[in-house]
Amino acid sequence: MTSPAAMEYLFDEKILNNALKIDPKITIKDNFHLRPLARNDFEHGFLAALSQLTEVGDVSRERFDEIFDKMKTNGCYYVTVIEDLDTNRIAGSATLFTEYKFIHGGGLRARIEDVVVDNDYRGQNLGVALVQTLKSLSQVLHCYKLTLDCNDQMISWYRKYFDFQIEEGRSNFMTIRFSSSSSSP
Amino acid sequence: MTSPAAMEYLFDEKILNNALKIDPKITIKDNFHLRPLARNDFEHGFLAALSQLTEVGDVSRERFDEIFDKMKTNGCYYVTVIEDLDTNRIAGSATLFTEYKFIHGGGLRARIEDVVVDNDYRGQNLGVALVQTLKSLSQVLHCYKLTLDCNDQMISWYRKYFDFQIEEGRSNFMTIRFSSSSSSP
Questions:
Q1: Cα distance from B144 to chain A (closest Cα, Å)?
Q2: A2 belongs to a structural domain
Q3: A89-128, pLDDT tens digit by residue?
Q4: CB-CB under 8 Å, A169 with B172
Q5: Most buried by CB count within 10 Å: which residue of A142, A184, B54, B168?
Q6: Which of A173, A182, A183 should one mutate to test binding to chain B, selecting the residue with the greatest count of B CBs within 10 A?
């Protein structure tokens, strides 16, 4: 039996449910549950899903809990997952992350990060559901803009399903990598 | 006389001093002081400097304090300013902002945001000093990468002075704006 502590969520599920109400077009099959990251997702393939996006490296249970706690205390991390209820496996994940600003009347900016759908769950609308939910979430949180950086091959997808724009003259993304970390993201 | 509360810094100046030690090439004239944002910078032109970058809008003293407090509690905001010691005016500002990750061994990613030098202080190396300091700061904080998004005309500057790279096939920056906010950033 799962203990209540293990089912602890990273953020309040009510906020996510408010976001889901904005766009009734978000449809995934009934055996999928879109919800905040839970502490026990460590045991249900959350890092395995992320490893299909980039190098996860050596993240122990203790390290996972440490980051989970930091994100939860910080309060600006909305790591959202889709669980396959038949197997309790994490089928996909995406993160909304907010930033306080002095500009724009002291507004809040949102970013989408680390979007991944497990290879075994492709073609079931899960990526669209995740990003559409985070877009709605950023509106629920009253953000003035939502941004992301992506690979060339993802541009048309973000444009088609969510109206993300490459803005003329100001859409350059630049990087410095400090160690021998992997290529992306 | 300035009260101690008014001179309260957003983050520990020691961290910034450690960053400054990394690169002895950072040189600005003696009448400039590079330091963390202080609470009383509201009275010394901090928002006026930011308004040369984008729309600041209506940010009252109370709203400023509220954002300052949120950023300070959050602990991931390194808003760094250069003060003109002759006038106590803010000559420039740039922000380093860090994000917890489950990927890369549970690493920390850094971002540079809201870089601005007041028009009256151009050509005095202040922009280079600010960004170089934040680059060093992201190393002091053991970040695995440092990123930014910028206008076309800034690419060569970030490449030349700091070795920022446009990475082939994965340097696209996309945006959704939700309200009638101004054009940039």
A1: 5
A2: no
A3: 999 999 999 999 999 988 999 999 999 999 999 999 999 9
A4: no
A5: B54
A6: A173
